[in-house]
Amino acid sequence: MFLHRAASQVAAPVSVNQPSMRRSTPESQQGPEPCNRAESGDRRMSAATQTCGRPLCCPANRTTGQRRSVGPCQHQWEHRRPARSARLPPSCATGQAGPSAAAHMASVAAAVSADAAALQELVEDAVVWASQHGLLVGAGLAEPSCATVHAPLALLPVPYPRETFLRAKAAALAFNAMIDAVAQDEEYLTTVLAAAAQEDLFTARLLQVFRETAAERHARREQEGVLAVLRSDYMLHAPTNSLLQVELNTIASSFGCLSTLVARMHAYLLGRLGASEAELAALPTHNAMDNIVDAMGAAVAEYCSAAGCSNGEAVMVMVVQPGERNAYDQQWLQTRLWERHGVCTLRRSLAQLVAEGELGPDGTLTVGGRRVALVYFRAGYTPDDYPGEAEWGARALVERCDAFKCPSVAYQLAGAKKIQQDLARPGVVERYAASSVDAQLLRSFFAGLWGLEDLAGSPETQAVVDDAIAHPERYVLKPQREGGGNNYYGNALRDKLAAARAAGGAGLGAYILMQRIQPPVNRSIMVRLGQAAEADTLSELGVYSTFVRRGGRVLLSAEAGTLVRTKAATSDEGGVASGYAVLDSPLLV
Amino acid sequence: MFLHRAASQVAAPVSVNQPSMRRSTPESQQGPEPCNRAESGDRRMSAATQTCGRPLCCPANRTTGQRRSVGPCQHQWEHRRPARSARLPPSCATGQAGPSAAAHMASVAAAVSADAAALQELVEDAVVWASQHGLLVGAGLAEPSCATVHAPLALLPVPYPRETFLRAKAAALAFNAMIDAVAQDEEYLTTVLAAAAQEDLFTARLLQVFRETAAERHARREQEGVLAVLRSDYMLHAPTNSLLQVELNTIASSFGCLSTLVARMHAYLLGRLGASEAELAALPTHNAMDNIVDAMGAAVAEYCSAAGCSNGEAVMVMVVQPGERNAYDQQWLQTRLWERHGVCTLRRSLAQLVAEGELGPDGTLTVGGRRVALVYFRAGYTPDDYPGEAEWGARALVERCDAFKCPSVAYQLAGAKKIQQDLARPGVVERYAASSVDAQLLRSFFAGLWGLEDLAGSPETQAVVDDAIAHPERYVLKPQREGGGNNYYGNALRDKLAAARAAGGAGLGAYILMQRIQPPVNRSIMVRLGQAAEADTLSELGVYSTFVRRGGRVLLSAEAGTLVRTKAATSDEGGVASGYAVLDSPLLV
Question: Which of B134, B145, B149 lies closest to A54 in CB terms?
């Protein structure tokens, strides 16, 4: 907390460029959280001068201390009204500093935050390091179109409870095994998603592809090539001090590479602030980038082994959205896949894939004459990616071929919100988990989840809908959509549910109702386009896992790294500038 | 040569993404250089479609086969009329391929060059790799000012004769010793530069600082802290197949870091084209970045050792031009100096330095309370950097302090063109070289150099000026300026010399006349802002060397890496777009 907290009570400013001063801030000077934090934060930021040639402080990003009503989220995030002191470490909150590395680093960071010149230097260090090390996104300019800027990032890592973090990582293999079992149960997928497909054309169309390609799939079942790159997303639920799953991504799990770089950047910046080796040990290292790439490499090697070709002959096709050229998170995978496994990547949109791809009579897929060992989707998860029949044709083409798929349609369906909700019903996850111990572990992360297809007939569903209408702040209403921006919160949720109830419960088959997670609030300095802005923030933890299976043989199942995204705790009403997320990493406390 | 050559005679296109095809181009298909190369090159480039969202081919950069008159150069380069076949490797030129790795890579590269799709993929690979690995320059945009783009680069390394390359590297220590001896001979510097100072205010002002700080310097002679980061620049002289020195940089030798990255990028790209380990061995590895940083670290460690402080307590001040924020070549030094030696860097303009710097009675310099162990100049080499007395005050402040200097005023003066010319006079370099063997080696790189201060009185000078007026294409007229753009060529040179001769030889004391180097011409694909353009090019080799001395103790003298810059062989008349240089690396043949 303190890392992101206003530090007006810390007297001695610490120089960024003077590691020898790193213990010069007496820990006893750390006081309890000031009640006027937002105001003092504003004052400090106004005093900041320049970074990247522009003011440090973006007024639009300041927190005013006033909470506005919570509106629909443009990102895939849980919102809540902040409960700011929830996660304050005891050693800091009491003013009695313990020996914790995180507590010491927090005090240093707080001092930097209070010193405009030191803050400016640290922001510049962050921007330069990010640009030097490929922690980039496209600048989105027409000219030059190849211009890049650093990815939006948290200046310093966010304190995160160590035990909870480790527990989430430890659950990765259980999720791998469970979702793989779900994906192999075609009857379960089609049955559970039938109601959603009635109201959601996208789900219906995916099921149609699934049905139309069944013959080829069943004929190849013993040789099915599966690569899963999952990311299970969690938020801390402050009222019960538990970690709850937001969702499990089975397609296009992103940010593995940039997240790897952010963790390295935070280690660098804490080093600049004078962190000792022991203190840096509170930053968990991970290498999601290479772990994901190694899973891809394993899939290609397995394909080539069976096909009698070399790694260099077969390629990975990365399915991308048209025109996307600056996706550095994706391109790092390409670079590392080449460097570590000698495998080339072809970036193709769905439309390009159907135009260039050729399916041989033996199920081999070639693109431009190159044999495809693996198709990796970074597109195809939203209806927008399928503007016409050509794109659906590409999807079916991939389903029919003998390449490894990441993901298959089955895996994509297994990640549907409706499946997430159904798995939470009594006895369901227990059918798919590898063991009862696994099932218990998985269930411990499940938030309250309710299906709405039986609103007319189920007293239980009616009761929860009644409660949601009475207390909309306790729930989120989610349609079958990926990519965020489609959820209902607050009054919109209440109105939607009330209208559906009045209409006899119709039209909600594609929705699930989910308990609203109430994460603790931190104080963060977010850096975007070279500008720093301090704000109250919420953080979401993602845990990557990789899985490779050929027919009945599991070749790889591994936890593969983590992601922390942090966003302003305020609503999105102020627009993107006040609502954006930044890449972050955890400092374990 | 073939690497950069039009490849219209190579029949089989080689796929970038198919390493297994790397030997699919029969070497016997390589024919002699076609006489219509420029035209076929144009055709090929026109067929190229898109990279980075824009056409591969920049028409402004095409060579037309027509040579225009050679005008003043905006860069620090020697121009000549191209003699294009001069450096064609015999094994390629005859069509009888030898076993050379370079020859094979050349044929592959030529094939890529002829295949628009393969070329586009390779350009994208280059742009992505460069952006991922910090091979960047600022995009120069007002908004966002922190946006970056890849540095201008040659897509593939330029063939370079191995023996010549190794000879240039082997001369580094001899240049180190020689220039250090020159810099310590104050009487020599002031005497030789007296005539230039009469006509050149900048030289005069540097000499004034030198004079005014003599007392402090002499008092500290036994403890003088010297860091030299030199770069000796060379071009091949085709008519004699020799390597001639263009100049020796003693201040702000740039591109060490980006050059390190370009060599790595070329290794990556050749790997993508299917180069074997043996073939990649033709790319000399170097690490100018870390070698320069290690010399800085050694200087700081020596300072701190004597001063009784730790590396973490003392800082390096990097003197930069005001407003320069995106100098990634500089910032890599900062990042690596921190990572390898725990030394912080303060970036300061001369004006900031004089405002913030405090000189203690014992000669210690502090900036913002931080003790300065080393002042490293990446500015201060041009009159533009000294708009007022404040900046000159900063220069004197540094001269007076006890920090290591890179460079001192003496070192800067030792790099003056007038000194370069004087050293070439019979017997002079022999006085400063460490041995007669060294002197012979150094002299072997000297081009013809003539001073003009005695035009009125010396028949020899009159004879060379007469020859230059008759054959201006054989000479370059250079004033005492760094940074390029001030040289006289061709008709401008003839007119300037004729006018001076008519005026009785007055006004030329600050100029030197230099033999015009006639380098061989290559064919290169230059990539800038994501766009590729093929052109006839000239290349310049730079060899970095580092040197650390404390009083009479030499702590370090080392060759530190190389730089190759390549530019269009055509004149600058078409503007920056047709005349820019790109970063390159050598492929040894």
Answer: B145
